[in-house]
Specification:
Number of helices: 9
Strand order of the largest sheet: 3-4-6-5
Order of helices and strands: HHEEHEHHEHEHEHHEEEE
Largest sheet: 4 strands, antiparallel
CATH topology: Muramoyl-pentapeptide Carboxypeptidase, domain 2
CATH class: Alpha Beta
Distance between the termini: 30 Å
Number of strands: 10
Shape: globular
Length: 266
């Protein structure tokens, strides 16, 4: 029979080894669009500032490190234009665009449909997460940004810092958003690298994980990472868990990242 002392030690060990799911899940993989909306009162808990722009703490740290990497590669002048937006502010932006289109002769339903191809309505914008960043080199958010040295560098290297070009030109039918080379989304590593290697949008990546159930990734730190998908949070978590991310605000699926030193220790 296990003594009360041993049982207490085992309980403490379990509490120590199993991560705090609520703290671990920072929303970095949440899919937000017109079919997966955020509530009006949602606000990220970890909001910080970068040059006066509010954004998620995890995205800020990664963005600062990415700017340092760009500078080492002699790529200069990247500006953070905007990141976190409130539900009400996003609606105001959308409404303004609808009015502009109506002034051009579109009726309201047509104007709303056209506006939604470039500006998400309230609750459907990733900016409310604080994980979507609009960047530029001249203060303008245009497709030509993708042709600049900064835009080309981001296309090639942003995944190394946990970012993806969220709305690529070849995936507009999937994202339902026009090509936006200036719009970065922080999803963290190794997710961004996997999405880059497999040429997947966030929508496709989450679908891929639902179907494949797992993915093994060899990290630059020499460790092997097992990414596994589960519809519900497992009652018992495997050892070596480094991150647990739900895939939406509704918590209708989870991706669990586990790190091992060698692949034969799964």
């Amino acid at each position: 029979m296990i003594s009360k002392y041993v049982a207490a030690v085992l309980l403490l060990l379990v509490i120590t080894l199993v991560p705090d799911v609520a703290a671990s899940d920072s929303g970095i993989l949440w899919l937000v669009n017109r079919n997966n909306r955020l509530p009006s009162d949602y606000k990220p808990a970890d909001l910080v500032e970068y040059n006066g722009v509010k954004l998620h703490g995890a995205a800020r740290k990664a963005f600062a490190q990415m700017i340092e990497a760009m500078t080492k590669d002699e790529i200069h002048g990247l500006r953070l234009q905007s990141a976190y937006r409130t539900y009400s502010y996003q609606q105001a932006i959308f409404n303004q665009r609808v009015k502009e289109l109506q002034a051009q002769g579109y009726d309201k339903p047509e104007a709303e449909g056209k506006a939604a191809k470039s500006i998400q309505p309230s609750g459907a914008s990733e900016h409310q997460l604080g994980l979507a960043l609009d960047v530029s080199v001249d203060g303008k958010l245009t497709k030509t940004f993708g042709e600049t040295p900064a835009g080309q560098w981001l296309e090639a290297h942003s995944h190394n810092h946990g970012f993806v070009i969220r709305y690529p030109c070849s995936k507009t039918e999937i994202t339902q958003i026009v090509y936006e080379p200036w719009h970065l989304r922080y999803v963290g590593t190794p997710h961004a690298t996997i999405m880059k290697n497999l040429d997947l949008t966030l929508e496709e990546y989450l679908d891929y994980m639902r179907q494949a159930q797992m993915y093994i990734f060899w990290g630059e730190d020499g460790g092997y990472y097992l990414l596994s998908y589960s519809d519900a949070l497992p009652a018992v978590l495997p050892p070596g868990v480094v991150n647990i991310s739900s895939i939406s605000a509704n918590k209708n699926g989870y991706i669990i990242t586990t790190r091992k030193t060698y692949p034969n220790t799964w």
